[in-house]
């Protein structure tokens, strides 16, 4: 087992005390970083996260209490110990009641300080990622050096210890399923199945059967009993991706399952007990969807016991070089290429890009560059071409809607063999409106009639 040193950030405007603390804590085996004011401490916390902060109470500018309040507001799991003169002990006691881990009056005994540090670090969830043990493998797939992501991983580790439902927010391509899997792997259900389903990718008519299963003869084509994903995930975790796209009728049934811990397969009169943890994800604003009655409020609160928001790639640009080189390493092996890295101009281009597709888009760009590269370094020209090729492939919203409409109409006409009445009913449109849609896309229903 290889153990990294645990990092402590010490904040004090007394340079002599700062040096003394640094010497004592370094000798005790800790990695120590020192700053002389609270403002500098906040800057360091933006760059990297320690496992503990020790701060003086009285300092010029922002004092130790104000520093603690900022840390507690942005990173509530990060423990803080306050050093205080005798005259400010009442303030320190009040601070402890508000969430400060502990306080020590100056002059303090080194053994007492080290004992309090050890106690704080034992409850700090942030220490696990610093230790390369099998227990840390839960987060191995999440490549980051972002302070915001480390905070999120700390929360994820705390959440993983229980069975509370988790709702993950984030743009497409940020890695919501990867995060859900990490929570599963960090918890007590890690040895049971992790099952994922994209609620937006399965037609409404099939989603109920996919989730809850069906019995033989429940509908045309149901030639045998079929286990749903709830049963397949028994004892483990069911990840409901794009939950915001779930139809309202199924939302009602999902709510009942969460309340009763039972499912009823389609066509069955019997219920089946299930023990499944639910993690869901969405790129939608579910509060807005609730306000417009597109999402049930009671289900929202059932799913949103704990809420985690994954930052977009543009909000964690410090991760772009790390991710790009990680993808480069795996993709050069996949394509058996001898590529050593990115030219400086190429990396600058990657770091400054807007990344609307987030991490997934970055991986795609790197893959295109690896496939086309003929030199040991990926050039800026390759990166530029790959990025602009993606921009050209992204059509306007109107064009995308036209394509979807036409593809949908073709599918419906194929299903109904060109019967406009049935097609209109299936698409929940009246015949007149459906004919107008066919005319708009220059489709002739007769073409789809069986000969």
Automatic annotation (TrEMBL):
Gene3D superfamilies the UniProt entry points to: 1.10.8.60, 3.40.50.2300, Homeodomain-like (1.10.10.60), P-loop containing nucleotide triphosphate hydrolases (3.40.50.300)
One BP term from GO: phosphorelay signal transduction system
Residue ranges of domain Response regulatory in the record: 7-121
InterPro entries: AAA+_ATPase (IPR003593), AAA_lid_NorR (IPR058031), CheY-like_superfamily (IPR011006), Homeodomain-like_sf (IPR009057), P-loop_NTPase (IPR027417), Sig_transdc_resp-reg_receiver (IPR001789), Sigma_54_int (IPR002078), Sigma_54_int_dom_ATP-bd_1 (IPR025662)
Residues of the Sigma-54 factor interaction domain: 142-371
Coiled-coil ranges (or none): none
4-aspartylphosphate found at: 56
Keywords of this entry: ATP-binding, DNA-binding, Kinase, Nucleotide-binding, Phosphoprotein, Transcription, Transcription regulation, Transferase, Two-component regulatory system
Superkingdom of the source species: Bacteria
Record-level Gene Ontology MF annotations: ATP binding; DNA binding; kinase activity
Pfam families with a match to the protein in the record: AAA_lid_14 (PF25601), Response_reg (PF00072), Sigma54_activat (PF00158)
Protein name: Putative sensory histidine kinase YfhA
Protein's organism: Sulfuriferula multivorans
């Amino acid at each position: 087992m290889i153990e990294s040193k645990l990092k402590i950030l010490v904040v004090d405007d007394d340079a002599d005390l700062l040096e003394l603390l640094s010497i004592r804590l370094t000798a005790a085996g800790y990695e120590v970083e020192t700053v002389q004011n609270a403002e500098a401490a906040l800057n360091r916390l933006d760059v990297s996260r320690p496992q503990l902060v020790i701060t003086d109470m009285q300092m010029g500018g922002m004092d130790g209490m104000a520093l603690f309040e900022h840390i507690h507001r942005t990173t509530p799991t990060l423990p803080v110990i306050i050093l205080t003169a005798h005259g400010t002990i009442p303030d320190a006691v009040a601070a402890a009641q508000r969430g400060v881990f502990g306080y020590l009056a100056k002059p303090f005994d080194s053994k007492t300080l080290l004992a309090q540090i050890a106690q704080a670090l034992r409850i700090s969830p942030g220490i696990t990622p610093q230790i390369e043990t099998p227990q840390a493998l839960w987060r191995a797939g999440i490549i980051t050096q972002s302070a915001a992501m480390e905070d999120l991983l700390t929360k994820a580790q705390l959440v993983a210890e229980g069975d509370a439902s988790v709702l993950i927010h984030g743009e497409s391509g940020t890695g919501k399923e990867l995060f859900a899997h990490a929570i599963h792997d960090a918890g007590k259900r890690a040895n049971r199945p992790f099952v994922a389903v994209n609620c937006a990718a399965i037609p409404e008519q099939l989603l109920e059967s996919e989730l809850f299963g069906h019995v033989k003869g429940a509908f045309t084509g149901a030639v045998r009993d079929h286990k749903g994903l709830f049963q397949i995930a028994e004892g483990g975790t069911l990840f409901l991706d794009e939950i915001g796209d779930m139809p309202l009728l199924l939302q009602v049934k999902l709510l009942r399952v969460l309340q009763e811990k039972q499912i009823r397969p389609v066509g069955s009169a019997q219920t089946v007990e299930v023990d499944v943890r639910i993690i869901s994800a969405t790129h939608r604003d579910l509060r807005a969807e609730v306000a417009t009655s597109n999402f049930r409020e009671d289900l929202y609160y059932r799913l949103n016991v704990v809420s985690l928001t994954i930052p977009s790639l543009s909000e964690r640009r410090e991760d772009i070089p790390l991710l790009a080189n990680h993808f480069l390493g795996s993709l050069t092996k996949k394509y058996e290429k001898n590529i050593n890295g990115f030219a400086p101009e190429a990396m600058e281009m990657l770091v400054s890009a807007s990344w609307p597709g987030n991490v997934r888009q970055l991986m795609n760009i790197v893959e295109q560059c690896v496939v086309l590269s003929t030199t040991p370094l990926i050039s800026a020209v390759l990166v530029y071409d790959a990025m602009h090729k993606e921009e050209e492939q992204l059509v306007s919203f109107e064009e995308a809607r036209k394509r979807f409409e036409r593809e949908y109409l073709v599918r419906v006409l194929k299903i109904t063999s060109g019967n406009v009445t049935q097609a209109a009913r299936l698409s929940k449109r009246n015949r007149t409106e459906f004919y107008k849609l066919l005319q708009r896309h220059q489709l002739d229903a007769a073409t789809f009639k069986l000969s």
